[in-house]
Q: What sequence folds into this?
Protein backbone atom coordinates (compact mmCIF):
# COMPACT_ATOMS: atom_id res chain seq x y z
CA UNK A 1 0.00 0.00 0.00
CA UNK A 2 2.98 2.33 0.34
CA UNK A 3 3.12 2.50 -3.48
CA UNK A 4 -0.64 3.06 -3.74
CA UNK A 5 -1.26 5.74 -1.12
CA UNK A 6 -0.34 9.11 -2.52
CA UNK A 7 -0.52 7.86 -6.10
CA UNK A 8 -3.95 6.29 -6.64
CA UNK A 9 -7.45 7.23 -5.64
CA UNK A 10 -8.95 4.85 -3.06
CA UNK A 11 -12.49 3.48 -2.90
CA UNK A 12 -13.92 1.58 0.06
CA UNK A 13 -17.38 0.08 -0.42
CA UNK A 14 -19.12 -1.74 2.39
CA UNK A 15 -22.05 -3.77 1.16
CA UNK A 16 -23.81 -3.47 4.48
CA UNK A 17 -25.16 -6.80 5.82
CA UNK A 18 -24.20 -8.86 2.75
CA UNK A 19 -23.87 -12.56 3.51
CA UNK A 20 -20.88 -14.51 2.20
CA UNK A 21 -22.91 -17.50 1.02
CA UNK A 22 -25.37 -15.37 -0.95
CA UNK A 23 -22.57 -13.33 -2.52
CA UNK A 24 -20.76 -16.51 -3.62
CA UNK A 25 -23.89 -18.14 -5.02
CA UNK A 26 -24.73 -15.12 -7.15
CA UNK A 27 -21.18 -14.77 -8.46
CA UNK A 28 -21.04 -18.46 -9.42
CA UNK A 29 -24.43 -18.27 -11.13
CA UNK A 30 -23.50 -15.22 -13.21
CA UNK A 31 -26.08 -13.03 -11.50
CA UNK A 32 -23.67 -10.22 -10.52
CA UNK A 33 -21.52 -9.84 -13.65
CA UNK A 34 -20.36 -6.28 -12.99
CA UNK A 35 -18.93 -7.21 -9.61
CA UNK A 36 -17.70 -10.66 -10.62
CA UNK A 37 -15.53 -9.38 -13.46
CA UNK A 38 -13.40 -7.53 -10.90
CA UNK A 39 -13.17 -10.30 -8.29
CA UNK A 40 -9.79 -12.05 -8.39
CA UNK A 41 -10.51 -15.32 -10.18
CA UNK A 42 -14.17 -14.32 -10.33
CA UNK A 43 -14.63 -15.34 -6.69
CA UNK A 44 -15.14 -13.61 -3.37
CA UNK A 45 -12.57 -14.17 -0.65
CA UNK A 46 -13.96 -15.61 2.58
CA UNK A 47 -13.14 -13.45 5.58
CA UNK A 48 -14.24 -12.84 9.16
CA UNK A 49 -15.95 -9.57 10.04
CA UNK A 50 -14.31 -7.37 12.70
CA UNK A 51 -17.74 -6.76 14.27
CA UNK A 52 -21.25 -8.21 14.27
CA UNK A 53 -23.05 -4.97 13.43
CA UNK A 54 -22.41 -1.79 11.47
CA UNK A 55 -21.07 0.57 14.13
CA UNK A 56 -18.59 -1.85 15.67
CA UNK A 57 -17.37 -3.17 12.34
CA UNK A 58 -16.81 0.25 10.79
CA UNK A 59 -14.99 1.57 13.84
CA UNK A 60 -12.59 -1.34 13.43
CA UNK A 61 -12.22 -0.94 9.67
CA UNK A 62 -11.52 2.76 9.93
CA UNK A 63 -8.78 1.89 12.43
CA UNK A 64 -7.22 -0.37 9.77
CA UNK A 65 -8.79 -3.68 10.76
CA UNK A 66 -10.49 -4.80 7.56
CA UNK A 67 -12.21 -8.21 7.56
CA UNK A 68 -9.65 -10.87 8.50
CA UNK A 69 -8.67 -13.71 6.14
CA UNK A 70 -9.75 -17.12 7.36
CA UNK A 71 -7.05 -19.38 8.75
CA UNK A 72 -4.40 -18.77 11.34
CA UNK A 73 -2.56 -15.45 11.05
CA UNK A 74 -0.99 -13.09 11.53
CA UNK A 75 -2.28 -11.67 8.26
CA UNK A 76 -0.48 -8.52 7.03
CA UNK A 77 -2.82 -5.56 6.84
CA UNK A 78 -3.17 -2.95 4.11
CA UNK A 79 -3.52 -0.07 6.58
CA UNK A 80 -2.56 0.24 10.24
CA UNK A 81 -2.28 2.92 12.90
CA UNK A 82 1.06 3.16 14.66
CA UNK A 83 0.79 0.62 17.45
CA UNK A 84 3.67 -0.98 19.29
CA UNK A 85 3.84 -4.75 18.99
CA UNK A 86 1.36 -5.05 16.11
CA UNK A 87 1.95 -8.44 14.50
CA UNK A 88 -0.12 -7.63 11.41
CA UNK A 89 1.77 -4.49 10.38
CA UNK A 90 4.13 -5.48 7.54
CA UNK A 91 6.68 -3.73 5.35
CA UNK A 92 4.03 -2.90 2.72
CA UNK A 93 1.44 -1.65 5.19
CA UNK A 94 0.47 2.03 5.01
CA UNK A 95 1.10 3.12 8.60
CA UNK A 96 -0.47 6.34 9.88
CA UNK A 97 0.10 8.28 13.08
CA UNK A 98 -3.54 9.34 13.39
CA UNK A 99 -6.17 7.31 15.23
CA UNK A 100 -8.04 6.34 12.07
CA UNK A 101 -7.45 5.68 8.40
CA UNK A 102 -9.62 8.57 7.24
CA UNK A 103 -7.51 11.11 9.12
CA UNK A 104 -4.35 9.30 8.05
CA UNK A 105 -5.23 9.67 4.37
CA UNK A 106 -6.29 13.29 4.86
CA UNK A 107 -2.89 13.98 6.40
CA UNK A 108 -1.15 12.90 3.19
CA UNK A 109 -3.38 15.02 0.96
CA UNK A 110 -6.49 12.99 0.22
CA UNK A 111 -9.93 14.53 0.06
CA UNK A 112 -12.00 12.23 2.29
CA UNK A 113 -15.67 11.80 1.41
CA UNK A 114 -18.37 9.62 2.98
CA UNK A 115 -21.61 8.68 1.24
CA UNK A 116 -23.64 7.13 4.02
CA UNK A 117 -26.40 4.58 3.87
CA UNK A 118 -27.66 2.95 7.07
CA UNK A 119 -28.67 4.82 10.19
CA UNK A 120 -25.21 5.02 11.74
CA UNK A 121 -24.36 7.55 9.01
CA UNK A 122 -27.50 9.69 9.11
CA UNK A 123 -26.17 12.44 11.44
CA UNK A 124 -29.57 12.54 13.15
CA UNK A 125 -28.04 12.72 16.59
CA UNK A 126 -24.69 12.20 18.26
CA UNK A 127 -24.34 8.48 17.57
CA UNK A 128 -25.24 8.84 13.91
CA UNK A 129 -22.56 11.52 13.57
CA UNK A 130 -19.55 9.65 14.95
CA UNK A 131 -18.59 7.83 11.75
CA UNK A 132 -19.42 10.52 9.16
CA UNK A 133 -17.65 13.14 11.28
CA UNK A 134 -14.36 11.36 10.55
CA UNK A 135 -14.58 12.69 6.99
CA UNK A 136 -14.00 16.15 5.54
CA UNK A 137 -17.20 15.78 3.53
CA UNK A 138 -20.12 13.54 4.43
CA UNK A 139 -23.50 12.97 2.80
CA UNK A 140 -26.72 11.32 3.91
CA UNK A 141 -30.39 11.71 3.05
CA UNK A 142 -33.44 9.43 3.20
CA UNK A 143 -32.95 8.78 -0.52
CA UNK A 144 -29.66 7.05 0.34
CA UNK A 145 -31.05 5.08 3.27
CA UNK A 146 -32.44 1.64 3.95
CA UNK A 147 -36.08 2.45 3.16
CA UNK A 148 -35.40 3.72 -0.37
CA UNK A 149 -35.77 1.18 -3.21
CA UNK A 150 -33.42 3.34 -5.30
CA UNK A 151 -30.82 4.04 -2.63
CA UNK A 152 -27.76 2.74 -4.45
CA UNK A 153 -28.58 4.45 -7.74
CA UNK A 154 -28.81 7.70 -5.77
CA UNK A 155 -25.49 6.99 -4.03
CA UNK A 156 -23.78 6.39 -7.37
CA UNK A 157 -25.22 9.61 -8.80
CA UNK A 158 -23.83 11.49 -5.81
CA UNK A 159 -20.43 9.80 -6.09
CA UNK A 160 -20.18 10.87 -9.73
CA UNK A 161 -20.89 14.46 -8.68
CA UNK A 162 -18.19 14.27 -5.99
CA UNK A 163 -15.60 13.04 -8.48
CA UNK A 164 -16.57 15.61 -11.10
CA UNK A 165 -16.27 18.46 -8.60
CA UNK A 166 -12.78 17.60 -7.41
CA UNK A 167 -9.65 19.24 -8.87
CA UNK A 168 -7.86 16.80 -11.15
CA UNK A 169 -4.67 16.83 -9.06
CA UNK A 170 -6.41 16.10 -5.74
CA UNK A 171 -6.42 12.48 -4.59
CA UNK A 172 -9.73 11.08 -3.34
CA UNK A 173 -10.64 8.59 -0.66
CA UNK A 174 -14.31 7.78 -1.20
CA UNK A 175 -16.23 5.61 1.24
CA UNK A 176 -19.69 4.32 0.31
CA UNK A 177 -21.86 2.46 2.80
CA UNK A 178 -24.37 0.61 0.62
CA UNK A 179 -27.70 0.32 2.41
CA UNK A 180 -29.62 -1.72 -0.19
CA UNK A 181 -28.86 -5.16 1.31
CA UNK A 182 -29.93 -4.15 4.80
CA UNK A 183 -33.47 -4.76 5.98
CA UNK A 184 -35.96 -3.83 4.58
CA UNK A 185 -34.99 -5.34 1.25
CA UNK A 186 -38.22 -7.05 0.19
CA UNK A 187 -38.93 -4.37 -2.42
CA UNK A 188 -35.99 -5.51 -4.55
CA UNK A 189 -37.76 -8.78 -5.42
CA UNK A 190 -40.18 -8.63 -8.33
CA UNK A 191 -43.77 -8.89 -7.21
CA UNK A 192 -42.95 -8.84 -3.49
CA UNK A 193 -44.94 -6.84 -0.96
CA UNK A 194 -44.23 -5.73 2.59
CA UNK A 195 -46.41 -8.60 3.81
CA UNK A 196 -43.93 -11.08 2.33
CA UNK A 197 -41.15 -9.59 4.46
CA UNK A 198 -37.41 -9.92 4.00
CA UNK A 199 -35.90 -13.27 3.06
CA UNK A 200 -32.66 -14.74 1.85
CA UNK A 201 -34.11 -14.44 -1.67
CA UNK A 202 -34.89 -10.72 -1.36
CA UNK A 203 -31.39 -10.25 0.08
CA UNK A 204 -30.04 -11.80 -3.13
CA UNK A 205 -32.31 -9.61 -5.25
CA UNK A 206 -30.90 -6.56 -3.48
CA UNK A 207 -27.36 -7.59 -4.44
CA UNK A 208 -28.46 -7.97 -8.06
CA UNK A 209 -29.87 -4.45 -7.87
CA UNK A 210 -26.54 -3.14 -6.58
CA UNK A 211 -24.69 -4.94 -9.37
CA UNK A 212 -26.82 -3.20 -12.00
CA UNK A 213 -25.46 0.19 -10.90
CA UNK A 214 -21.97 -0.51 -9.57
CA UNK A 215 -20.24 -0.28 -12.94
CA UNK A 216 -21.13 3.42 -13.01
CA UNK A 217 -19.43 3.88 -9.65
CA UNK A 218 -16.31 2.05 -10.81
CA UNK A 219 -16.23 4.14 -14.00
CA UNK A 220 -16.50 7.41 -12.08
CA UNK A 221 -13.75 6.44 -9.63
CA UNK A 222 -11.34 5.45 -12.42
CA UNK A 223 -12.12 8.41 -14.67
CA UNK A 224 -9.17 10.50 -13.40
CA UNK A 225 -6.48 7.97 -12.53
CA UNK A 226 -6.04 4.42 -11.31
CA UNK A 227 -8.16 3.57 -8.29
CA UNK A 228 -7.55 0.95 -5.62
CA UNK A 229 -10.93 -0.51 -4.65
CA UNK A 230 -11.94 -2.52 -1.60
CA UNK A 231 -15.40 -4.12 -1.69
CA UNK A 232 -16.58 -6.09 1.31
CA UNK A 233 -19.36 -6.66 3.78
CA UNK A 234 -19.18 -5.33 7.31
CA UNK A 235 -21.16 -8.28 8.68
CA UNK A 236 -23.77 -10.75 7.51
CA UNK A 237 -27.26 -11.40 8.83
CA UNK A 238 -29.57 -14.30 9.61
CA UNK A 239 -32.92 -15.23 8.11
CA UNK A 240 -34.09 -17.90 10.54
CA UNK A 241 -30.95 -20.02 10.74
CA UNK A 242 -30.84 -21.81 14.11
CA UNK A 243 -33.79 -19.69 15.20
CA UNK A 244 -32.01 -16.35 14.66
CA UNK A 245 -33.14 -13.39 12.60
CA UNK A 246 -30.95 -10.30 12.17
CA UNK A 247 -27.40 -9.64 13.33
CA UNK A 248 -25.44 -8.27 16.31
CA UNK A 249 -25.07 -11.88 17.40
CA UNK A 250 -22.46 -14.61 17.14
CA UNK A 251 -23.50 -16.79 14.20
CA UNK A 252 -21.49 -17.98 11.16
CA UNK A 253 -23.93 -16.20 8.83
CA UNK A 254 -23.05 -12.95 10.64
CA UNK A 255 -19.30 -13.37 11.14
CA UNK A 256 -18.47 -14.74 7.66
CA UNK A 257 -18.29 -12.05 4.98
CA UNK A 258 -17.23 -11.61 1.34
CA UNK A 259 -14.18 -9.51 0.54
CA UNK A 260 -12.22 -8.39 -2.52
CA UNK A 261 -9.68 -5.74 -3.42
CA UNK A 262 -8.49 -4.86 -6.89
CA UNK A 263 -7.34 -2.00 -9.13
CA UNK A 264 -9.62 -0.07 -11.44
CA UNK A 265 -7.36 1.11 -14.24
CA UNK A 266 -7.54 4.80 -15.09
CA UNK A 267 -7.62 6.58 -18.47
CA UNK A 268 -5.10 5.33 -21.00
A:
Amino acid sequence: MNTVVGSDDILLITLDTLRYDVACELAAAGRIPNLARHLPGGRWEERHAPGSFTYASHQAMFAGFLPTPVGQGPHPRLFAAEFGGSESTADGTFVFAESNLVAGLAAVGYRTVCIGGVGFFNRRGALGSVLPDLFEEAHWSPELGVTSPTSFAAQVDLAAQVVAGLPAERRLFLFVNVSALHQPNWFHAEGATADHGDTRETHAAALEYVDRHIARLFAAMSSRRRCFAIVCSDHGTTYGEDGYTGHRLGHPAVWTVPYAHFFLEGPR
In short: The chain is about 25% helix and 20% strand.
